[in-house]
Amino acid sequence: MWRHTLLIGLAAAFASGKLIFSPADLSETEYDFIVVGAGTAGCVLAARLSENPDVKVLAIEAGGSNEGIIATIAPFLGVSLAGTSVDWNYTTVPLEGYDNRTLGFTRGFGLGGSSVVNLLTWNKGSIDLWNSWAEVTSDDGWSWNNMEEFWLKTNTLVAPADGHDTTGQVDPAVHGTNGNVQTSVPGFPTELDPLVVNASLELGGRFSYSVDINGGVVLGTSYMQSSVGGGERSSAATAYLYPVLDRDNLDVLVNTRVTKLIQTGGQKGKPEIRAVQLQQTNDDTPIQVKASKEVIMSAGVIATPQILMLSGIGPRQDLSKLSIESIVDLPDVGQYLADHPAVASYYLVNSNDTFDSLLRDSNLFGLELVKWNTTRQGRFVNSPANTYAFLRLPDDAAIYETFDDPSSGPTAGHMEIIFVDGFAAFGPLAQPATGSFLTVLAGVVSPVSLGSVTLNTTHPFADPLIDPAFLTNAFDEYTMVQVMKDTETFLSASSWDGFIIEPYGDLANASTDELKLQFCRTYGSNINHPVGTARMSPKKAKWGVVDSELFLKGADGVRIVDASVFPSIPESHTQAPVYMVAERAAALIKTKYSL
Question: Are the beta carbons of 111 and 47 closer than 8 angstroms?
């Protein structure tokens, strides 16, 4: 009921610039750069590359503008966007590790991409993550120290919506002061906040309190930082694209798919690809647009490999089965899909302050919505969670007898626990009609299981086959069970006495490792952090899809800039690293062409 309400635009100022709604209305047939996908990375590139007024940039977005859609603006309401018009509405194949269930696979559809529909968490990633990327790509430009300038360009730390004193909740010294995306700690305290913090202080050790995990050590219990400023979502669209839409040298084409990359030449067996094919429906006559310098693929972890494969770029053997002519044989395209598996545990609690009553009572919900709309205060200024913890496995974990540590290193975790003050519907369970709840969303952030994105048709408007392969590796199974045990340990701290009444549903029966694992298979979901389907590798490596400067291997004229190029999955939320990769890509491009 309330999802439909949230998709009604309240009075909101639309961007003052221009959007183009049909390829026939493009003013040019050739641009310097064509950015395929105006999502998180694409908005950054469109904004940065068009800073030079002599450079003509075309950004192409499959979806439309999301301005005025209130659920894309009010942070708390982001959870309502899955399955709506601003979601690609992908569905996975039946997942072996989840008892052959299928899952919705949310990806943002529209300007700003997934930065508009995600749950806003802002994590830089660990020191070891970035240094491992530098090592695996043989490019020190990806190291923690060298990526610092791009981190600072992405964000500005601002006061929370309620203006409270944030001493001890965040370290301003490790954040940007003049970046595009506004970030903050929660601006609406909940009853869980002191319970979580006090439990971490009581337990210590692996659960110790961290003032700011964005300082490089992504471990411990902390307040969540989010892409929120002034009680509103700060997305790639609002932070990068909308402020520059009036530039004469920037065209933004919406509601249009790039259905194919077009070879425009080549020499010595290496194709040149500097054109794209555009369609708005499958019945349209395709239109081609050329790039004099580069086509930049920023279509995302699913659409980027799909477009590449439809264009003959990918595993030759697989493409031949669909009678797609191979242009570049790259076996890694669409492979190595990684994502964070998670499961929600629910507890009945002794409280009248959870958000459960808000979701059950449309009058209460409406009053809270009016409060947010008129004052930018109240519960809707936050995402549903205020606190979380990142943990490493115990040093003596038995799984180390058969597996090496898959994490980036000692500054990165294996598991995450998120605390939500109400029944948050992650997974197949619907909100109960009565009761107040605590949700603990727990997951594996260093998964070993790897999946794929593959084609089953040459129809460009059909979805590809998406298989994240959750819980198909013994390490991930072990770690999911461990994080459920760690949740129980954390909730045993004295700060929870009198608050938690009992576990809800089948959780109460998940008393052994085997039953905990089965609970995860039955109720597991994901945190929507897919990466890796066009991964980076060293320039001369035979594996990988792009080199360390993000050029497509085996061809001229194409770069890929989105989360598909990540060579490993961050052991944290992935939004901020996408911005950082895009900022570095923009710098590399400007340097190459002396812009």
Answer: no
Task: Please name the residue that has the structure tokens 């004229």.
Answer: 557
When pLDDT is cut at 50, 70 and 90, the band that residue 17 belongs to is low
- 3-class DSSP state of 276: strand
For tokens 């576990």, the residue is 503
The tens digit of pLDDT for each residue in 550-584 reads 999 999 999 999 999 999 999 999 999 999 999 99
**What string of DSSP letters covers 445-487?**
SS----EEEE-S-S-TTSPPEEE--TT-SHHHHHHHHHHHHHH
Distance of alpha carbon 195 from alpha carbon 190, whole angstroms: 10
Whether the CB-CB separation of 53 and 247 falls below 8 Å is answered with: yes
Pairing assessment for the beta strands 558-560 and 287-297 based on DSSP bridges: parallel
Closest Cα to residue 42, out of 333, 324, 236? 236
Residue 186, both tokens? 């929660």
Using alpha carbons only, how large is the chain's radius of gyration in Å?
23
- The position carrying tokens 């991930």 is 476
Residue listed under structure tokens 């990327």: 133
- CA distance linking residue 65 with residue 228, whole number of Å: 19
Rounded Cα distance, 335 and 308, in Å:
12
Q: Using an 8 Å Cβ cutoff, are 165 and 138 in contact?
A: no
pTM: predicted TM-score of the whole model, two decimal places: 0.97
Could you tell me the pLDDT band of residue 68, with boundaries at 50, 70 and 90?
A: confident
At a CB cut-off of 8 Å and minimum separation 6, what does 430 contact? none
Neighbouring-strand partners of residue 388: 222, 418
SS3 letters for 84-133?
CCCECCEECCCEHHHCCECCEECCECCCCHHHCCCCCECCCCCHHHHHHH
More confident residue, 14 or 206: 206
Say whether pLDDT at 146 is over 90.
yes
DSSP state of 278: E
Asked if 14 contacts 242 with a C-beta cutoff of 8 angstroms, the reply is no
419 Cβ contact partners less than 8 Å away, ≥ 6 residues apart: 192, 196, 385, 386, 387, 388, 438, 439, 440
What confidence tier does 2 reach under pLDDT thresholds 50, 70, 90? very low
End-to-end CA distance of the chain: 50
Q: Tell me, what's the pLDDT at 497?
A: 97
Tokens read off for 192: 């869980």
